[in-house]
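Justification of resources, computational component.

The compute hours requested in this renewal are based largely on the per-chain cost of generating structure records like the one below. Each record pairs the submitted sequence with a full structure-token output. That output is archived, and it is also reused by downstream analysis tasks.
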Amino acid sequence: MDKNESEALAALTRRMEEVEAENSALRAQMADLAAKPARSPVPAPSRRDEGPRIFYPLETPPAGVPSDAEADGLLKLLRLDPRYRHLLLDDGSRPPFLTGDFDRPFRAALRYVNTQAYRMEVPNKEVALSWWCDAATGWCKAQGIAHDRITGGAFIAACVASGDVKVQLPNLNAGIVFECGLSPHRSGRAPNGAWRRVLETGRLPDPYVPRVANEYAHRKPEVITLGI
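The structure output for this chain reads:
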């Protein structure tokens, strides 16, 4: 055995001794842990210890919210109105963000719009349609209202049918996005049951048209000549 082999063997022997020492130390720690008494499990809290649980069921429509029969009447007016029936048509003409099941999400959105959403004098430009759909869907789930996810078309139709919400209809070809006169912060005017007047008169409110658009609607386009 040459010098290099002897040194390698000596290093291997030292390493084996170190491993044996580490194993002995670990065995001693395990023995100490085994000798200690086991901790008693912490009992799970009982329902009585958790305190009261508060739920807000909405089994019957509160004052100011349409019943299912009244919601169906509003839905019929929407289907007959040429200004709004494109929101409901399921013939492939609706934009992708307006497609999906309609009747049940529409009834659920009506309840949300007429209980939680406060009115503004002009459409709110800061809140997207997707945010309103998520907020309405979350509220309805918390109330235990059976429905699918509230779609964009159902929420827009609910705003229109409520009678007192200013609605700017989306027109993607013209670059116009949906805006509605609702406040997410419960500021403004509370819902006042204007949908009853819609049912009594059989007339839905007109879509909101911005004042600037009204001012320039009848003007002829100006022709500007550039002198070069």
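Residues 1 and 43 are 66 Å apart (CA to CA). Helices lie at 3-35, 68-80, 103-113, 129-143, 152-162, 195-201, 211-216.
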